[in-house]
Amino acid sequence: MLAYDALKRAITEMDIYGSTTEFRLDERQLSEDLGVSRTPIREAMTVLEQEGFVRSVPRRGIFVVRKTKRQIIEMITVWAALEGMAARLAAGRAAAGDIKGLRHLFDEFEKEPPAAHMNEYSQANIVFHQAIIRMGGCKLIVDMTENLFLHMRAIRAVSVRQENRSETSMREHMAIIEALEGGDADLCERLVREHTMGLAAHVDKHGVFPD
């Protein structure tokens, strides 16, 4: 499990949609970096391939799977439904401190626009959506979004830098937080769903992803 968790974490942190370059995983290098033999690395790779995160190419090696634009839009649509329901649940059960924590994520962007601190804003954006899922308090939703997260994180990291989307994202986040503070379940669900479907529309129009 150590090798699997480490590899999954490493893949999650890769900018897999930030360029057209394929990401090849070096078994020997990974073995050295993790301080384990190649056997657990191979075992972890096998599991990751079964889960659809990596693919084995004969005589070339193991590569991180990148989804097509159509697959990405489908994933975003599923995420919108799941996070929307998590937001509805969170409106009735999230602790005031947790909601306040969402506001604090964006404190540093109130004086200067998100575009001035894109790396930091991108990370805060990702943490925000993870928090909404967690605050819903439904373990099954958390589990169902876990395997989508690897790609969603990479998609958000690229998209938030395009077409001034960070400014729109910030405004929509604030509206979601206000709806959570007001305990309006219908509004929370709708705002989160529309926010994420806005990402789908953006990807459809501007996204450059594998065919």
In short:
This protein is mainly alpha-helical.
Biggest sheet: strands side by side, in what order?
1-3-2
Any idea what the radius of gyration is? 18 Å
Fraction in beta strands: under 5%
| N→C terminal distance | 33 Å
Helical percentage: 55-70%
Secondary structure tally: strands: 3
Along the chain, the helix and strand elements come as HEHHEEHHHHHH
Nearest-integer average pLDDT = 90
Describe it:
With 211 residues, the protein is mainly alpha-helical. Helix content is 68%, strand content 5%. The protein has 9 helices and 3 strands; from the N terminus they run αβααββαααααα. The protein has a 3-stranded antiparallel beta sheet with strand order 1-3-2. A hairpin with a 3-residue loop joins β2 (54-57) and β3 (61-64). α4 (69-93) runs antiparallel to α9, α6 packs antiparallel against α7 (139-159) and α8 (165-181) runs antiparallel to α9. The radius of gyration is 18 Å and the shape is globular.
Write the layout of secondary structure elements.
Elements: H1 2-12, E1 24-25, H2 27-34, H3 38-50, E2 54-57, E3 61-64, H4 69-93, H5 96-104, H6 118-135, H7 139-159, H8 165-181, H9 185-206
Antiparallel strand pairs: 1-3, 2-3
Helix pairs in contact: 1-3, 4-6, 4-7, 4-9, 5-8, 6-7, 6-8, 8-9
Labels describing this entry:
mainly alpha, 211 residues, 3-stranded antiparallel beta sheet
